[in-house]
Amino acid sequence: MATRHILAALGLTLAAQFALADEHGPVAAPAPAVGDSWTYQYTDVWKGAKGNLNRMEVTGVDAAGVHVDIKRAASGALLTKQLFSPEMNPIDRGAMHFAPAFSRYAFPLEPGKEWTTDATGDNPKSGKHWRYRIKGKVLNWEKIKVAAGEFDALKVEVEALYHGEEPNSPGGSGQLTETVWFAPAVNNFVKLDYRDTDWNGRIFNRDSWELTTFVRK
């Protein structure tokens, strides 16, 4: 009896996923506008503790990409300025600069799509450099509920193997994994889970961000 209930539940889950996928066609690249913003709750999953509530505000869109200010949600204090590609792939994260952009997305997005790209990452303050081999895949449509509401979102998984370019620097190598739920309704992700492992496969970083509020101009 228990087995039949489990199979029935699994069947309903799969049917719901297929129905949700049938409702949507391929998702085109977002078109962020000046004044758009997204506020995220950061959580240190490793420590099980909530952190800061920060807001991303689009301040400019030009040939260089999408310019974003990162501010404290409560005070409006400016933390850093960042740059994204037109597809909202990270280029300049303040402490880290990617060339080309870190390909979190490869639009148009639809279930089953995969991509592989290479990028370099530079930290100007530390003078360190990394090479990334990035692999992304769109898994499926999911309904996901966060503080900002419930959204239809594409679940995307991105894995990046990286290694330091400096000689004899094994500590600069590892693999990061991002699981991202991209919601067309907000032109951005509504949830992002991050995991980083060192060159021995030991997890040393686990973080998440969930959308609390957003503004679309």
Task: Tell me what the structure shows.
The chain has a single domain, classed as Beta Barrel (YmcC-like fold), CATH 2.40.360. It has a twelve-stranded antiparallel beta sheet. It has one helix at residues 2-22; strands at 37-44, 49-62, 65-72, 78-84, 90-92, 97-99, 114-123, 128-146, 149-164, 174-183, 188-198, 203-215. It is globular. By secondary structure, it is mainly beta.
How many domains make up the 3D coordinates?
Answer: 1
Question: Which residues form runs of ≥5 with pLDDT under 50?
Answer: 5-10, 12-19
**Beta-strand residue percentage:** over 45%
Helix content: under 10%
**With helices defined by DSSP (H or I, 4 residues minimum), what is the helix count?**
1
Provide a brief overview of the structure.
This protein is mainly beta. Helix content is 10%, strand content 56%. The chain has one domain (2-215): YmcC-like fold.
What keywords describe this structure?
1 helix; globular; 217 residues; twelve-stranded antiparallel beta sheet; YmcC-like fold; mainly beta
Could you outline the blueprint of secondary structure elements for this entry?
Blueprint: H1 2-22, E1 37-44, E2 49-62, E3 65-72, E4 78-84, E5 90-92, E6 97-99, E7 114-123, E8 128-146, E9 149-164, E10 174-183, E11 188-198, E12 203-215
